[in-house]
Structure formats: C-alpha cells, structure tokens
Amino acid sequence: MILDDLVAATTARIQREKKLISLATLQQQVAEVHPVNKPSFIASLDDHFGIIAEVKKASPSKGLIAKDFPFLGIAREYTKAGVDAISVLTEPDYFKGDLEFMHEIAQVTSKAVLRKDFVIDPYMIYQAKIHGASLVLLIVAILSDQQLHDYYQLATELGLEVLVECHDESEIKRALAVQPKLIGVNNRDLRDFTVDIHHSEQLREKIPTHIKVLAESGITQAAQLKELKQHGLNGVLIGETFMRAPDRQAIIQQYKEAVL
C-alpha cells in the first residue's frame, strides 16, 4: 500500500535526520523560538468558511504537479488572495516537499502555516515548531491511540494547533478520544488514493457540531464549497486545483465568493 511506503520512507528519513540533529538539540532550540504572531486558523472558522491553500510540487497520485515551483511566489499569491492558512508539503520522497520550503514561507506570509507531512515521531513536531509552523497534521491511520494522544498533547504544549485527519467512521471515533478542535476528513483514501467528494459530507454527521471540520482532497469547483458548507463543513484544504490554476488569486476569489 502507498501509505505503508510513505510511513517507511518517513521513518528512514527521521532516523537520518536524528543523526544530524538530536532530539535533545531540537528541544533546546524550541525553547529559544520566538512566539509565532499568526492568527489562529481554528478561531477564524467561527465567522466564515475557511480555506487552506496548499503549496505542493508533486503527489503519488498525480506525479509532478508543478515543474516550475516558485514556492515563495505561490505563498505570496495565496496570502494576497486572502486564504486563511497555507499548507506546505515537507515530505521529500513522494511529494517533493522540503522543510526549508515551510521555513521560508512562514517568514514571508502573515497567514498560519500547516506542516503537511506524515508525522510518526515527536521529532517532527519539534521540527514544525522550530521552522515556523502554526499547525501540524496528525493522520489517525498511521498512529496508534497512544501516539495520537501523546502527539496531540505535545503539539498543544508547543503552541501548535492540530488538524486531525480521518478517512472513515472508525478513525473519527479514535480522533474524538483526544477531544480535537479541528478534524479533517480526507475524501481520498490514502490506502489506494481513490476519491469520493461526498465522503466528508457523510462523515460530518458523525462529528459533534462544536468541532470544526474541513474537507480535504478532490475539490475542483467553487460550487462544491457551497455544498460542503450546506452540509455543515467549516472549511476546505485545496492543493492541486490551486497549484494548477493559471491565475491563483482569481480562482481563490471565486471560491471565497461561493460561500459568502
């Protein structure tokens, strides 16, 4: 399965990175990090339908998405367009991401920044904090209940907001055990990468209304946002559609107007 390969690659990567910079060193660096003065993404969902725009060069399902990849320019376009947060892929093997992309983007945007990666070690949460993230992604499918609890608690203690990603009802039940403020329902099954755009609408009913819920993956039309909002979703995370758009600011404006 693709997900197993991603986890294996991430495990190997973190083992290599720990040899270069120890966990103890990261923990010391975190203590010296200045507070990130960025607006809370979760709080922004109280008064409007939110949009997280993703900076993504490639993916396992689509291959190379952006041959030309001026990641800072893309982040500036997203910022100018008024998105609520920017997601940055930091997974290098399958998504051609880099932690440095996020580090630099965090310095040029006023928006909250999400580290989009396959977090399987506390080390990665410390990295996220040091490199300017405001949010971190925790994927229920690749974590045990204990890991999910511990990583959520660590991220919160470090002042990071957490997006807990689920794909089915059993994962939602596990996610609810950590009392999350924000859940993302991935319309793409990470086991085989098939997409069902209505998946997040159906699973919204299984999540208490006080918890904010995002739809992730497969969103290609502004009208879909209106439908998602009608089904009680609070926002979306969109990557490929925005990355491939000839005019990113224009398409984001269309999407924002659809949910006014």
Automatic annotation (TrEMBL):
**What keywords does the record list, in alphabetical order?**
Amino-acid biosynthesis, Aromatic amino acid biosynthesis, Decarboxylase, Lyase, Tryptophan biosynthesis
Example of a GO MF term: indole-3-glycerol-phosphate synthase activity
Output the Pfam families linked to this UniProt entry: IGPS
Coiled coil region boundaries: none
Q: Which CDD domains match?
A: IGPS (cd00331)
Quote the PROSITE patterns the UniProt record gives. Answer: IGPS (PS00614)
Q: What transmembrane ranges does the database entry give?
A: none
Gene3D superfamilies from the xrefs? Answer: Aldolase class I (3.20.20.70)
Entry keyword Repeat: no
Task: Look at the named UniProt entry and state the broad enzyme category this protein falls under.
Answer: lyase
| EC number(s) per entry | 4.1.1.48
Single Gene Ontology BP term? Answer: L-tryptophan biosynthetic process
Q: In which pathway does it act?
A: Amino-acid biosynthesis; L-tryptophan biosynthesis; L-tryptophan from chorismate: step 4/5
Its recorded reaction(s) are: 1-(2-carboxyphenylamino)-1-deoxy-D-ribulose 5-phosphate + H(+) = (1S,2R)-1-C-(indol-3-yl)glycerol 3-phosphate + CO2 + H2O
Q: Where does the record place the Indole-3-glycerol phosphate synthase domain? A: 3-253
Q: Which PANTHER family match?
A: INDOLE-3-GLYCEROL-PHOSPHATE SYNTHASE, TRYPTOPHAN BIOSYNTHESIS PROTEIN
Q: Which family does it belong to?
A: Belongs to the TrpC family.
Report what the protein is called. Indole-3-glycerol phosphate synthase
